[in-house]
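Why do we care about 3D structure at all? Because function follows from shape, and shape follows, mostly, from sequence. That is the central idea of this module. The next example makes it concrete: a single protein chain, its amino acid sequence, and then its structure expressed as tokens.
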Amino acid sequence: MHLRCRSFTTLPPEAASLRKDIFMREQGFKDEFDALDSIAVHIVLFADGKPAGTCRFYYDDKAQSYIFGRLAVKKELRGRHLGLTLLQAAEQEIKARHGRSIMLAAQTQARDFYARQGYAAQGTEFLEEHCPHIMMRKDLSA
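And the structure:
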């Protein structure tokens, strides 16, 4: 499988379609799109030329950190480390912007995935659209 990540400064239709399919249709989220989409960098992973996954990141002045999120991989392609490929692509771009930390709100089912990549849980679990999440953070200066 030939993989290629592309970054976009506006929400591309491939990312919007993937997020609708995965977060809204598959997982039942209603409030998938927000104003942050207009300031985020969107990454789309193409597998053999077809959209396979997406994520986004943006800088948050209040948190003084980059915020990573909306990681989604097509159901039939899961288990092939494509989520890791997207996360690493975002981390590389954030490091290139001299980012010192990354924060994310992980679905608790994905907590171990992020922990294996060096993210540490912060605070207590919370619900986002009836789905349990936990804030996690990774220091990039280490």
